[in-house]
């Protein structure tokens, strides 16, 4: 039952509705870091022929060398799609500019800045912390009330100690997502009493990482990975976590890509090697 509740939360954690962050970067503010785009007017094929794949994607498919690593690819597929055929890849299409609520201790902010340094190795992903909310599109905001991704009934299934380690027991986030599942802003809501939790910084790091694609956690992820649901303390992003992001942001899709389409791309890659 607990796994079911966590899984359901992760699936529905985003929101396409208007969020509370009014100041966001323009949607057309894009990353220019070896970005490879798919044409806007084409859809990823859903049949085995892959006849409708955009020519730009087809041309670059030979560079999808991560398809050669079956073990890593299997892990990525679960973390991204879970058990659902209806969940598609979600990618940030703008630089992520993070702003922290002044109520969050400066030591937390400094630690977070060190935490995101390795993310600079990820193509098509640009993350930094800003001091001006007018330049932000990712807002860690503190609320003087209880905020949770779970209902009170859901939380009854967890002990007090489990709630302390459960990432979203007193936090949640809402993504602003375009119709083609491209992310351009986020508000990360935090209950004020969570600031006193010794695990707050670790939970903040985990929540932020998961919001880069609404990743699913799993006990099968490598030890100490953010994506391992048994990981409580997070000091830095692991090589495993970075590998997942490198696959995820290798190519920026302009149309939704679901599990069956992703598998078709893999087959096509092997056929043209």
Task: State the order of secondary-structure elements, H for helix, E for strand.
Answer: HHHEEHEEHHEEHHH
Question: Please, what is the CATH homologous superfamily?
Answer: Collagenase (Catalytic Domain)
**What ranges have pLDDT less than 50 throughout 5 or more consecutive residues?**
3-53
Instruction: Provide the domain count.
Output: 1
**Structural class designation:** alpha/beta
CATH class: Alpha Beta
Indicate the radius of gyration in whole angstroms.
Answer: 19 Å
Helical content class: 25-40%
Q: Any idea of the CATH topology? A: Collagenase (Catalytic Domain)
Total DSSP helices: 9
Percentage beta strand:
5-15%
Please summarize the sheet with the most strands. 6 strands, mixed
What is the count of β-strands? Answer: 6
Shape: globular
Q: What is the CATH architecture descriptor?
A: 3-Layer(aba) Sandwich
Would you spell out the secondary-structure blueprint of this structure?
Elements: H1 2-12, H2 55-60, H3 70-81, E1 91-92, E2 96-100, H4 106-115, E3 127-129, E4 138-143, H5 152-155, H6 160-165, E5 171-177, E6 182-191, H7 200-210, H8 239-248, H9 259-272
Parallel strand pairs: 1-6, 2-3, 2-4, 4-6
Antiparallel strand pairs: 5-6
Helix pairs in contact: 3-8
Description:
With 273 residues, the protein is an alpha/beta fold. It has one domain: 3-Layer(aba) Sandwich (Collagenase (Catalytic Domain)). It has helices at 2-12, 55-60, 70-81, 106-115, 152-155, 160-165, 200-210, 239-248, 259-272, and strands spanning 91-92, 96-100, 127-129, 138-143, 171-177, 182-191. The termini are far apart. The model is unreliable at 3-53 (pLDDT under 50).
């Amino acid at each position: 039952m607990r796994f079911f509740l966590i899984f359901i939360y992760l699936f529905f954690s985003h929101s396409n509705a208007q969020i509370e962050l009014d100041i966001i970067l323009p949607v057309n503010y894009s990353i220019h870091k070896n970005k490879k785009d798919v044409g806007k007017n084409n859809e990823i094929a859903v049949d085995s022929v892959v006849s409708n794949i955009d020519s730009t994607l087809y041309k670059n498919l030979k560079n999808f060398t991560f398809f050669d690593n079956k073990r890593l690819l299997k892990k990525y597929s679960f973390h991204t799609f879970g058990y659902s055929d209806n969940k598609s890849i979600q990618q940030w299409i703008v630089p992520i500019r993070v702003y922290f609520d002044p109520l969050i201790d400066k030591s937390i902010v400094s630690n977070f800045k060190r935490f995101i340094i390795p993310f600079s190795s990820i193509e098509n992903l640009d993350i930094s912390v800003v001091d001006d909310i007018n330049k932000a599109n990712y807002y860690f905001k503190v609320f003087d009330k209880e905020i949770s991704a779970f209902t009170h009934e859901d939380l009854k299934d967890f002990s007090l100690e489990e709630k302390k380690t459960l990432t979203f027991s007193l936090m949640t986030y809402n993504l602003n997502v375009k119709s083609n599942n491209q992310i351009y802003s986020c508000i990360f809501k935090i209950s004020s009493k969570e600031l006193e939790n010794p695990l707050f910084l670790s939970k903040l790091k985990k929540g932020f990482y998961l919001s880069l694609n609404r990743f699913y956690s799993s006990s099968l992820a490598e030890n100490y990975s953010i994506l391992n649901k048994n990981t409580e303390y997070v000091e830095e992003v692991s090589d495993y976590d970075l590998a997942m992001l490198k696959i995820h942001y290798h190519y920026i899709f302009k149309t939704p890509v679901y599990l069956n389409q992703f598998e078709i791309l893999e087959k096509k890659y092997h056929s043209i090697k």
